[in-house]
Design a protein that fits this description.
The chain has three helices and 14 strands. The chain is mainly β and 259 residues long. The longest helix has 17 residues. It starts with 5 loop residues before the first helix and ends in a 6-residue tail after the last strand.
Length: 259
């Protein structure tokens, strides 16, 4: 069609979606409570919990702290659950603290299956089990750690962030790999696009965890990103997040976030 611009249509549709989001029509809402089990890994400092399958690296410096959990593959959804937030409450066990307090955690890792053990005796994260392997500090907010494993109720809750989405770059002159962190609202990402100041929108493919990649030459261009939430399907644009002299190994922060 002569004179038709997909880029303009793409931007217009996103602006409409952003307006709906700003009006609170697509913000993430807590889910209903569901049943699961929880264990813990690491020690009381959570120093052994750094890194993880989501690619967040140092959880202290990147804002996730010690209130984190690894999810069984049923919850992990091949990495699309990275960054999601949960309230967890111990129930039905003598190890539960009085008053059944709640711990709020962020998903930062995968608890892989252990097929050498029975699902009810050590293979806690074997599918189709719904299981949280919490950091020890987070587990100790709901139950006595010597219990090892406790039944819990859990629900998804909004991830509350005080600043914008952050992007840490890796790659080379022909390949951009972006680790996406500090995502608010549902906390999760379904898809991403990148736009250079001299290029159109390029769809990024899901690498693993919370990382997305584009095979393109984007050096020397300021970079903008469009991010779509996995849960709410809401999209937002982070304009000019990285300046034209951006480099790999650095982190850039947007001024926008989900709620």
């Amino acid at each position: 069609m002569a004179g038709f611009s997909w880029s303009l249509l793409f931007t217009a549709l996103t602006m409409i979606a952003n307006a709906k989001y700003a009006a609170g029509l697509a913000s993430f809402q807590p889910t209903l409570w569901s049943f699961a089990y929880a264990t813990f890994y690491g020690d009381g400092t959570a120093s052994n919990d750094m890194g993880g399958a989501c690619g967040y690296g140092n959880l202290y410096t990147n804002g996730y702290g010690t209130d984190t959990a690894a999810l069984s593959s049923t919850l992990f959804k091949n990495g699309f659950a990275c960054g999601t937030c949960y309230q967890i409450r111990c129930i039905g066990s003598k190890a539960c603290y009085r008053g059944y307090p709640i711990a709020t955690v962020t998903a930062t890792n995968l608890c892989p299956p252990n097929w050498s053990k029975d699902s009810n005796n050590g293979g806690w994260c074997n599918p189709p089990r719904t299981h949280f392997d919490m950091s020890k500090p987070a587990f100790m907010k709901i139950a006595y750690w010597k219990a090892g494993i406790v039944p819990v109720m859990y629900r998804r809750v909004p991830c509350v962030k005080k600043s914008g989405i952050r992007f840490t770059f890796q790659g080379n002159g022909y390949w951009l790999l972006a680790y996406v962190m500090n995502v608010g609202g549902g906390g999760d990402i379904a898809g991403m696009w990148v736009r250079g100041s001299r290029s159109g929108w390029i769809r990024m493919s899901h690498n693993w965890g919370a990382s997305y990649q584009a095979f393109a030459s984007l050096g020397g261009q300021s970079l903008s990103f469009l991010i779509t939430s996995y849960t709410t399907k809401q999209s937002i644009i982070a304009w000019n997040v990285a300046p034209s002299n951006w480099n790999v190994g650095l982190t850039y922060q947007a001024s926008v976030n989900f709620h």
